[in-house]
Write a sequence for this structure.
């Protein structure tokens, strides 16, 4: 079945006899047993709910996994995956990560006895020398947040398999529509469903998609025990959002390409980071391992004065955290998404006072460019 069709009809089991086209919202915390020792398959919504299960089956098919588990947030998904490991285990991770992941690893995972080496995983020769006898996994984002570094997933998967490590890939920026890490060798794929999968900036969600039955069983045990499950109504919102994922992603990418090229021509813009530009270091890898470049752009302007001028001058484009919705959002990483990272460490990654991140929506490109021209050039 084609991906576009899977987004709409990826799971035809709707647990419903009325013929309702929209999947019912099973807003129930608990389910009655038919008899002693018998179950309908659903007992308590922390463990499983029919609406959430419907969503999980769709996500599993979209990512090409054995199982998909839906969480209350993307960070809940990552936090649960980290519970697969034990004190003393070692990780190699991308050094340019979403600030929430950085915060989790540094302030919670390390406290719990895990250790990390952070490295630019787009530079493959840097990875293997960091592997130790207690290394258990490699965690990558690609493209990274916010510097848009691109990692060769298949090449890292070969390193991981050689050393019997798990490969965990955060696929939030590209979604399974543009990139399917499991087919490239990943063991676990993470998503913040809040972003492109939901697509409307109206709910929080997260996913972990796996290809191994033992990992699935362990994650589901941790999941029901710690309880970070996605609620029925939020599950329904994700089901609805995924139906339009391909057409939204196509339009957002089209807009992003035009905006990236326009930004590249502005004298007040020093650097544009967008994987769809042929000048991007990861351009060829992106073409090889995916079907699109996404709609996330980071760009550096020439002064903090210009940053303030942009953030306080936009109106159609909204100055807000998050990404992936139909509305175009602009973010100031040093204050927002990466505000908890020490200044020296942040600036070493290029996340400085002049860097802005743009999540491109589905508005008219002309209107978006007119807005940026007005605030950047005073037009």
């Amino acid at each position: 079945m084609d991906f576009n069709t899977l987004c709409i009809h990826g799971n035809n089991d709707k647990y419903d006899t009325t013929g309702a086209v929209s999947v019912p919202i099973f807003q129930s915390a608990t389910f009655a047993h038919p008899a002693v020792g018998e179950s309908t398959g659903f007992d308590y919504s922390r463990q499983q709910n029919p609406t959430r299960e419907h969503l999980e089956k769709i996500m599993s098919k979209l990512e090409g996994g054995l199982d998909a588990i839906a969480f209350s947030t993307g960070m809940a998904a990552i936090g649960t995956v980290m519970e697969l490991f034990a004190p003393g285990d070692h990780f190699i991770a991308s050094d340019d990560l979403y600030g929430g992941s950085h915060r989790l690893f540094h302030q919670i995972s390390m406290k719990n006895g895990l250790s990390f080496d952070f490295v630019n995983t787009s530079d493959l020769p840097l990875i293997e020398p960091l592997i130790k006898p207690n290394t258990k996994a490699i965690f990558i984002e690609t493209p990274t947040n916010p510097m848009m570094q691109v990692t060769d997933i298949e090449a890292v998967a070969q390193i991981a398999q050689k050393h019997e490590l798990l490969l965990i890939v955060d696929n939030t920026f590209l979604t399974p529509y543009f990139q399917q890490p499991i087919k490239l060798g990943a063991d676990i794929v993470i998503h913040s469903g809040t972003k492109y999968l939901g697509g409307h900036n109206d709910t929080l969600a997260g996913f972990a998609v796996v290809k191994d039955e033992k990992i699935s069983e362990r994650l589901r045990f941790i999941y029901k025990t710690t309880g970070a499950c996605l609620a029925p109504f939020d599950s329904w919102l994700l089901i609805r959002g995924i139906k339009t994922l391909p057409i939204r992603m196509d339009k957002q990418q089209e807009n992003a390409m035009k905006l990236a090229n326009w930004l590249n021509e502005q004298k007040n813009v020093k650097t544009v980071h967008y994987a769809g530009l042929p000048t991007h270091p990861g351009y060829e890898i992106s073409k090889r391992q995916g079907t699109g470049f996404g709609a996330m752009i980071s760009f550096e302007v020439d002064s903090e004065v210009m940053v303030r001028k942009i953030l306080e001058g936009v109106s159609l484009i909204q100055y807000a955290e998050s990404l992936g919705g139909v509305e175009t959002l602009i973010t100031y990483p040093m204050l927002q998404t990466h505000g908890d990272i020490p200044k020296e460490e942040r600036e070493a990654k290029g996340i400085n006072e002049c860097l802005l991140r743009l999540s491109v929506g589905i508005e008219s490109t002309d209107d978006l460019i007119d807005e940026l021209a007005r605030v950047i050039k005073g037009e």
